[in-house]
Fold this sequence. Notes:
Layout: H1 7-20, E1 24-27, H2 32-45, E2 49-50, E3 60-62, E4 76-78, H3 95-106, E5 114-122, E6 131-137, H4 140-149, E7 151-152, E8 167-173, E9 183-187, E10 192-196, H5 201-204, H6 207-223, E11 226-228, E12 230-236, E13 242-248, H7 255-259, H8 265-270, E14 273-278, E15 282-286, E16 292-295, E17 300-304, H9 310-319, E18 325-327, E19 330-332, E20 337-339, E21 351-352, E22 358-359, H10 361-364, E23 383-387, E24 404-412, E25 422-424, H11 428-436, E26 439-441, E27 453-455, H12 468-482, E28 488-492, H13 512-522, E29 529-531, E30 534-536, H14 553-559, H15 564-582, H16 591-606
Parallel strand pairs: 1-5, 3-18, 4-9, 6-8, 8-10, 13-24, 24-28
Antiparallel strand pairs: 2-3, 5-6, 5-7, 9-10, 11-15, 12-13, 12-14, 15-16, 16-24, 17-23, 18-23, 19-20, 19-21, 21-22, 25-28, 26-27, 29-30
Helix pairs in contact: 11-12, 11-16, 15-16
Bound molecules: guanosine-5'-triphosphate, sulfopyruvate and manganese (II) ion.
Amino acid sequence: MxxxxxxxxxxxIEEMTSLTKPDKVVWIDGSKEQLDHLIEEALxxxxxxxxxxxxFPGCLYHRTKPNDVARVEDRTFICSRKKENAGPxxxxxxxxxxxxxLTPMYDGVMKGRTMYIIPYSMGPIGSPIAKVGVEITDSIYxxxxxxxxxxxxAQAFKNLPDDSNDFVxxxxxxxxxxxxKRYIVQxxxxxxxxxxxxxxxxxxxxGKKCFALRIASYQGWKEGWMAEHMLILGVKKPDGDIxxxxxxxxxxxxxxNLAMLIPPKTYKDAGYEVFTVGDDIAWMKxxxxxxxxxxxxxxxxxxxxxGTNEKSNFNALECTKKNAIFxxxxxxxxxxxxxxxxxxxxxxxxxxxxxxxKVNGKEFTSVMGDDGKPxxxxxxxxxxxxxxxNCPCLSSEFNNPKGVPVTAMIxxxxxxxxTPLVYQSFDWVHGTYIGSAVSSETTAAATGAVGVxxxxxxxxxxxxxxxxxxxxxxxxxxxxxLGDKAPKIFNVNWFRQDENGNFMWPxxxxxxxxxxxxxKRCEGKVDAVETPIGYLPKVGDxxxxxxxxxxxxxxxxxxxxxxxxxWKKEIAEMRRYYNDDIKAKGGNIPQKLYDELDMIEERxxxx
Length: 607
Ligand code: GTP
Ligand code: SPV
Ligand code: MN
């Protein structure tokens, strides 16, 4: 029985059904009975494994194919009608050709399978910023994850008037999970996503990267709002006032960790608290008062498991304790609990690693992989899917349909050298330049080499659904619209290393000290040093109470220094990037960004 009368939805479903030819069609209404039944089915088929009901009530385990463990950027396409609208950061194919190539692959792909139709809302039901999607899939894993990550089921259609065509059509089939035939395709002008031959996370939970970033960034450009790869957090100060901050870091560079930060003792004692609104995606619109308001379109967290422990991210660990799904971690067979590197120092001795091989944990860590490194029990991009309601520090504004007002925006990445701990842009235009200049050492969140420095503008390189030049111009337009109510823009780097490759900044909870400086800057309560690259903290203005032993005056100076020679190289590389990687390949870089580049270079030459 269908859950809507909307003729546009029904017509599309009819077309997709006759294309994929499932044995059975099931509308996901979101009821507990229906979900319980699906879980039973997935347990019976082995698709999901039940974890320890006492220690991890309602939690499930899932293993993907070893060739299907991360986003596949080389197989991800933006199919706008004109190639120049996809721009230099995206793979492109003519939509007609793409549909023609994929249609035979979908033809009859669901024979012998059940088609699940998942209506979902990105954003709180009733929010003027929220949008509706419908995902068709042949995977129960997708249904169960979408149930955590979105507001799913019949409720979603409350946000879609019966005559509306404003919903995103997502078609997913795991097909044969053949990596050679894997395609993740966005058709921004059709509000459509087609994903085939994967059953992993960001490739198949179509509400997340495909809709909430690639399609939504395009919609935001057309409709005058922003969809960004940003966490949203609130810092409550001792005076009770809460300041909201968003931060864009590339995949696996610390968004979930910062979003759920626990302040160090000196801040807790003073009365500071941190609340999580979102850990990955922000949709932002100008409010009636002229300020920028942010909602988290998601309803759960799809977080990196390795490295998550009681000390590094207590709140994230708490999130995973009930009704969560674990993907590609290891299982301790003694008590059916999940395990990953960095959870604790006791790898299970009777375990199954992420590929399913039975291992003795202590012995296993001495087995060498193809890369010549000791094998891990959990895949480096193994993840937990956890309901937002589990989060001990979830913001009371999480479901606020208006969103939260943004005071500051932060960019960052993994940079072993060059980039200081924190600096502030001179203004919005300079901040936009800083966003365009984000680069970071690659991680396991996407397939390909790890640890290579690459440009990742606004941490959105894999997610901008249109021409990056137009995207930067849209940032500048938003700044003009917001005027003096625009959030202040900062850059941070938690990953600066010493000559032995050790991180120089303790990070995690101690990042609160940097947030404190950022807030004080926004309030005009602290001075700064004007440098060629922006405003830096004066030595002594970052509160180091309690970590003086770790962050010695020498380290502090180093973290807050601008090495003019390194920065001249950085600027030369940016000019090369703008010219060769963007402009020469069809990106229309706004003149204002070139002007910023010139001004920074001039300041560096004078320094
Ligand atoms: P996506 O979900 O892929 O978008 O990732 P994310 O940006 O949410 O990254 P996450 O918070 O999951 O962190 C990824 C990795 O960075 C984990 O291994 C963390 O332990 C590590 N990390 C996070 N914050 C810090 C920090 O302040 N310092 C250091 N050294 N490592 C950090
Ligand atoms: C990321 O890679 O930025 C993620 C995980 O948040 S995924 O959903 O796979 O994109
Ligand atoms: Mn992400």
